[in-house]
Amino acid sequence: MYYVILDSEKFPPSILHEDQYFQWYNPMKNDHRVEFRGTMNQCYSYIARRDRRRSPLKPH
Hints:
three-stranded antiparallel β-sheet
């Protein structure tokens, strides 16, 4: 299981394996947000869709 973690709106989200997640973060604290859980490929797809929605295409 992998997690997409958002620490702050200023930084891009991180993808962490669940072992790393529990080493770095305490799930009971509100200092981060888990945006998505799944396989590594699902996490990368989630970030790609998320970034596409947030940044509109720039006209040439």
